[in-house]
C-alpha cells in the first residue's frame, strides 16, 4: 500500500513537471523564435499527449508568465543583482516561469523553486541551476504587492507607471488606454485586469451554412448579442463538426458585431457589391459572404499577402454565393472608384484590443509602431471611401482602442476629403449596452466581454 501511494505521488509529480516543461518550451519558442503562444502551445500539448488537467496548468503557466513578463523581469533583475542581458535566454525564461508561480499562483513556494531549478539544470547546467535557486528564493521573500511597493512608481504621482507594473502592461499602452477611457482611473484598471483574464473561445456560424443551434447542441453557449455567435466553455473548437466542416469558425463576438453592423445600415439603391479590403485570415469575409443581400450579390475579398489570401479562400469555401478573392494592395485599388455598395476595412493595427488572446503582443509592440500603422490606416480609409458609391457605407474597424488608430484617423480622413460623413453606429449593435456617446463605437473586454474593437460607419455623400 505504501509503495502504491509513493508511486501515485511520483506520477503526479511527473505530470506537473510535464506541464512545466511544456510551458517552458512554449516560452522559449515565443521569446527566441518569435512564435505565437496561441499557435505553439496547442501544438506542444498535442505532441506530448498532455491530459486536460495538466494542459490547463501548462496554459496558465504560459499565458500568465507572458502577460506579466515586464513585471517579472524587473523583480528578477533586482533579485539577480545584474541586467537580464547578462543572463542566458533559457535561464531568463525559467526565472520568469518561477516568478509567476511564486507571485501569481497557488503553487507552494518550495515546488515553484525546486521545479524551476530542475528545468535550468536540465536545459542549461548545474551552475545556472544554483544561480536560479538563489534568485527565486529572493523573489519569494515578498508577494507581488510587496514588490510593487518596492519597485513600482507611487500610484499617487504616476498612476500609469504603477498600473503598468501591477498589471503587467507597458506604460505606453496603459497611457493609451487611459486616453481612450478619458482618464477614468477606475475603468482603466478594470480594462487592464480584464486583459489578464483568459478570453473565452468565441465561435461564429457562417450564415447560410450553419446555425447557432448546432453549436449549442455540441455544448456551446449562445453569444450574448451576436445572432451568429456562441461561446465554447471548454474543449477544442477544432473537434466540433460544424468547425471541421466550415459551417462555423473561431471569431470574437466583437469582431462579429462590427461586421454585422455594416450589413444592417440602410442604403438606397443597389446593394449587390460588397468589398472586404483587408480580408485575411477570412473570418469577417466568411460572415459577410453569408450576409450579402439579395440574388446576384457578390463579395470581393482582397488580401495583400498570398498565404493569407489562401486562408480567405478556405474560409469562403462552401458558401453558396459567387465570391472572389483577390491578391492586391488595397491602398492602390485595381477596381474602379465608386464600384461598391458596402465596404469593410478591418485595418492593420497594433492589436492592442486583443492582448488577452495574444499576451506576448504587449511586449513585442512598441509605441513607435503606431505612426507607420496610422499612415497606412489613413491611406486605406481614403481608398475605402473612394471605392464606395455615393450613398454607400464604409465600416472602418480596428482591433485597438488607441486614439491614434481610431477616432483621429477618421477625423483626419473626413477633413481631407469632405465627401463622407459619420453615421451613428450604435443603433446597429442592438442590445449591446454602454456604447458611449457615439457616433463611433468602442467595445472593451471589461465592459462587453469582447476584444476592444472600434467601429466607425461612414456614408459617402
From TrEMBL:
| Family per record | Belongs to the class I-like SAM-binding methyltransferase superfamily. RsmB/NOP family.
- Identify a single GO molecular function assigned to this protein: RNA binding
| Ligand binding (S-adenosyl-L-methionine) | 278-284, 303, 329, 346
Task: Return the protein name.
Answer: rRNA cytosine-C5-methyltransferase
Q: Which residues form a coiled coil?
A: none
Active-site residue numbers: 399
- Signal peptide interval: none
Q: Which residues form the SAM-dependent MTase RsmB/NOP-type domain?
A: 177-461
> So which domain of life are we looking at?
Bacteria
Does Transferase appear among the keywords? yes
What keywords were assigned to this record? Methyltransferase, RNA-binding, S-adenosyl-L-methionine, Transferase
Any matching Pfam family? Methyltr_RsmB-F
User: Where are its TM segments located?
Assistant: none
Looking up InterPro entries in the UniProt record yields: MeTrfase_RsmB-F_NOP2_cat, MeTrfase_RsmB-F_NOP2_dom, NusB-like_sf, NusB_RsmB_TIM44, RCMT, RsmB/NOL1/NOP2-like_CS, SAM-dependent_MTases_sf
GO biological process assignments: regulation of DNA-templated transcription; RNA methylation
Q: Note the Gene3D superfamilies from the entry.
A: NusB-like, Vaccinia Virus protein VP39
Q: Describe the task this protein carries out.
A: May act as RNA methyltransferase.
